[in-house]
Design a protein that fits this description.
Blueprint lengths: L2 H6 L3 H15 L2 H13 L3 H11 L6 H14 L3 H14 L4 H13 L3 H14 L4 H13 L3 H14 L4 H13 L3 H11 L2
């Protein structure tokens, strides 16, 4: 797909017609998802919803499309709608990593820290190989002011994905906030290596 080329050359508006044509010709779910992402990037949520909604009816794309619609709800401040959509996804696929991670984020946005911890913990437990699950767990634990557990989760994320500079920077931030300036500076140095 040529979308990255259009975006990196500052010609994002030209990508839309190209992506629409690719979808018309291929009729592939991947092309539909790329077009939906384009519309989301252009803040055309109505068009994105129009592309994603039919994908919710296809078994092979339903989970991904529903999670993306829930992310749009979250981005538009419709947190309760996002949570309801994610609960629907998780009722069908209790191990969906994207749904569990997004649910933890939405629950944090609603101030439901205990529920967010349950969702993020499930993400990490069900996907012990996923840096994303542990990063989400670190975010939730940080929001709960459990610095030691947050650092541990971020360390696991960094171990699982050595290129996860976000995790390394969060470790440094938490260490600095808790008075560990030397460890924090060392961690920042490793994050940029």
């Amino acid at each position: 797909c040529a979308l990255p080329i259009y975006l990196t050359t500052g010609r994002a508006l030209e990508a839309g017609p190209h992506l629409q044509r690719v979808l018309e010709v291929s009729k592939s779910p991947e092309a539909a998802l790329a077009l939906a992402e384009y519309y989301i990037g252009q803040k055309d949520h109505s068009a994105a919803q129009g592309v994603l909604q039919p994908l919710t009816e296809r078994p092979e794309t339903a989970t991904l499309a529903e999670v993306r619609l829930a992310a749009m709800d979250r981005d538009l401040g419709r947190l309760h709608e996002a949570l309801a959509r994610l609960d629907k996804v998780l009722a069908k696929d209790a191990a969906s990593l994207p749904a569990l991670v997004l649910k933890a984020e939405v629950q944090l946005g609603l101030g439901q820290r205990d529920d967010a911890l349950k969702s993020a913990t499930l993400a990490a437990e069900k996907h012990p190989e996923s840096a994303v699950g542990f990063f989400a767990l670190g975010r939730v634990q940080s929001a709960r002011f459990d610095t030691a557990s947050a650092i541990s989760a971020y360390q696991t994320a960094a171990r699982l994905n050595p290129r996860a500079t976000d995790a390394k920077l969060e470790i440094a931030r938490l260490q600095l906030a808790s008075g560990g300036a030397d460890a924090s500076v060392s961690q920042i140095g490793r994050a940029h290596v």
